[in-house]
Design goal:
The protein is globular, with a radius of gyration of 22 Å. It is mainly α. Helices cover 72% and strands 2% of the residues.
Length: 353
């Protein structure tokens, strides 16, 4: 059974209505902890798609995403906090006067946060993108660490290691999932555009792409800038969901989590990033008991903090060894592909008989 274009659209609209209904239901039924995990899934979808644009679609191995997220989170926080909240946070070193009385609504602050991260991405990407593979990864990782050190020491702007507390809780379920949907739609449109095809050509073979007339450096820089913008938006949402930010939030482990999602879902698959973001985010909380004391019949542990991350590292290792293409490879979601799978095809065949 193959759905034609009209049937495909009808089924997609019904599925979209069901998903929207579930999000509304989740916001009303879930308790505060479950709702936070649910919203984290939406933020990780945004972040995974931003990294997948680089790693999966353009073939640039970047490890600097936590730096762009930090820029987005701090810019958004500084623009949305009220003067009273700032005076409470900056009790050791006063905030610079130019930022003391600035207060913007969330949406303009979010856009400025994304644009600031994009500007940083453009400035960093222009010299760094001359490098390739491991060298590029090391350079972007170094950039991420520089950002973290700057945030720690720029006391009069970022409040240093104390971080910023009491951020306005603007990142609610509807805001996060609306932006997650927008990011998915934007990525689909981008990848199916001429620019998206140029990214894939650069990923597959730079020399061949250049021979075809593609400006490789321009494609790389633009891809890096767009990815940084989306990462900045994700970082701003994360800060406003947690209500607090500090430099320790934006270490390499955060980039590692996003990289895990991209690799697990499949480099070059939007659907894979969405599925893996849901699996990894929920699993990270479901497996949190591994960090505490365990009774394993033959012996007991007194608690091994970080054990769940060992499990995820082992999972990443297995994926790299046995399924390098990830869960979806480079494939995308399709109703006809689902109907063509063995069990469903057999079930529909029996129904038809």
């Amino acid at each position: 059974m193959i759905l034609d274009k009209k049937q495909n659209r009808t089924v997609s609209i019904i599925a979209l209505i069901l998903v929207v209904g579930f999000i509304i239901l989740a916001d009303r039924v879930f308790n505060s902890f479950s709702r936070r995990i649910f919203n984290l899934c939406g933020i990780y979808i945004i972040l995974a798609l931003s990294l997948n644009l680089l790693n999966g679609f353009t073939g640039l191995f970047s490890l600097g995403h936590s730096g762009f997220m930090a820029i987005g989170a701090y810019v958004s926080a500084l623009l949305t906090m009220s003067p009273a909240q700032k005076s409470m946070n900056y009790f050791m070193t006063p905030i610079v006067p130019i930022l003391a009385n600035v207060e913007l609504p969330f949406i303009p602050a979010l856009i400025i946060a994304g644009l600031t991260a994009a500007l940083a991405g453009f400035l960093i990407g222009t010299p760094v993108l001359r490098l390739r593979d491991d060298y590029l990864a090391i350079a972007t990782l170094g950039f991420s660490e520089i950002i973290r050190v700057v945030l720690t020491n720029l006391q009069s702007v970022t409040n240093g290691a104390l971080g910023l507390k009491g951020l306005p809780k603007y990142a609610n379920t509807y805001m996060i999932w609306a932006l997650a949907f927008l990011t998915v739609i934007f990525m689909i449109a981008l990848i199916n555009s001429a620019f998206g095809r140029a990214c894939k050509a650069v990923r597959d073979n730079e020399i061949a792409a250049q021979a075809m007339g593609i400006h490789v450096a321009r494609v790389k820089i633009l891809s890096f800038t767009i990815s940084s913008f989306i990462a900045g938006i994700g970082g701003a949402l994360l800060g406003h969901l947690m209500n607090t930010i500090d430099p320790k939030m934006f270490t390499f482990s955060l980039t590692y989590n996003i990289l895990l999602i991209v690799v697990l879902g499949g480099n070059g698959s939007i659907t894979g990033s969405v599925i893996a973001a849901l699996i990894v985010t929920i699993s990270m909380e479901a497996l949190r008991f591994l960090d505490g004391p365990l009774n394993l019949l033959f012996f007991r542990t007194q608690g091994l903090p970080g054990l769940r991350m060992v499990v995820f590292s082992a999972l990443l290792l297995l994926v790299v060894i046995y399924r390098q293409e990830g869960l979806m490879g480079k494939k995308e979601f399709s109703w006809n592909r689902i109907l063509d799978t063995g069990p469903i095809k057999k079930l529909l065949g029996r129904g038809g008989a």
